[in-house]
Design goal:
Helix 1 crosses helix 2, helix 3 packs across helix 5 and helix 6 runs parallel beside helix 8. It is built from nine helices and two strands; from the N terminus they run βααβααααααα. Strands 1-2 form a two-stranded antiparallel ribbon. By secondary structure, the chain is an all-alpha fold. The radius of gyration is 38 Å and the shape is elongated.
Length: 266
């Protein structure tokens, strides 16, 4: 049957899972441990986990002495602190709170087991009708079956949560890529605007210079290129424009624009 866990243990486990998703959990965490931490965060655990907790905390308590595992350190949290949180332990204050809670649960479970054994083995057992013994045995078998069913169901639910977390991470990654593309397009837009303003300014300056020449000569300038050259130039301009329109946004397209902006803006 499921065992409810206290709120502090739920919060610690969720905090540890968050740190682990940030890549701070190290390589020592197994999938089973992470699944059990998700059960903690949902508010329950199993008898098997409770019985393993006191020994684990006692074995890993020295890990908290490392500087990176002390709150307030620039390197916090180290892998040891993340693992401690994932097992439900606090990293400040009473650091053995989860271990002490688990020990109390183990003692309670042992008392219940001894009570069942006492009923079966005391000297008055022979006076108990066989039907009651059968009912007791059936109840114990049903408890074991329910425990197995619960652990199977819990494992399935944890797997679904893991899948949803993976999908969320992928969606977040795609969103980040889209945002980067938007930033790049905005930067290119700004560059093109600046190039356009520069080209227009140059065009105005060229027109002014032409006006000065006309005024100084007292006549309109005569084109120095033959008709064939003009036709070739027009064809080249169309080719440049077509090439620019086919190019994808990016640094290469911006450079091409800057190199041929007089033609493209004409």
């Amino acid at each position: 049957m499921p065992i409810d866990v206290p709120d502090f243990l739920k919060r610690n486990a969720q905090r540890g899972l968050d740190y682990n998703r940030e890549g701070k959990g190290g390589e020592g965490l197994t999938d089973k441990t992470l699944d059990e931490a998700r059960e903690f965060a949902q508010g329950f655990t199993t008898e098997s986990k409770v019985r393993r907790m006191p020994a684990w905390f006692a074995r890993h308590k020295p890990d908290l002495d490392a500087p990176a595992n002390k709150p307030g350190s620039d390197d916090f949290p180290g892998a040891g602190a993340v693992a401690w949180l994932i097992w439900g332990g606090s990293v400040s204050g009473d650091v053995m709170d989860a271990a002490d809670w688990a020990q109390r649960q183990v003692e309670k479970l042992d008392r219940e087991a001894r009570a069942f054994d006492s009923i079966r083995n005391n000297k008055m057992a022979s006076e108990i009708p066989s039907s009651i013994e059968d009912q007791l045995a059936s109840a114990l078998a049903e408890k074991a079956e329910l425990q197995t069913s619960f652990e199977t169901l819990a494992s399935s639910n944890v797997a679904k949560v893991t899948e949803l977390e993976t999908q969320l991470a992928e969606a977040t990654k795609q969103l980040g890529n889209f945002e980067a593309q938007v930033v790049a397009l905005e930067a290119e837009k700004t560059t093109l605007k600046a190039s356009l303003a520069e080209a227009l300014a140059n065009q105005v300056s060229a027109s002014q210079e032409a006006a000065k020449i006309v005024a100084s000569l007292g006549t309109s300038p005569v084109a120095s290129s033959p008709a064939d050259d003009a036709a070739d130039a027009a064809q080249d301009a169309e080719t440049i424009k077509a090439t620019f329109l086919k190019m994808k946004p990016g640094a290469e397209r911006t450079a091409f624009f800057n190199a041929h902006k007089r033609i493209l803006l004409s």
